[in-house]
Amino acid sequence: MVSVGGNEIVLEEHDGRKYIFFYTFRGSLGDYSGFMYVPKGGDPTNFSNLNESQTTDIQPFGDHWFWAAHY
Question: pTM for this one?
Answer without folding.
Answer: 0.85
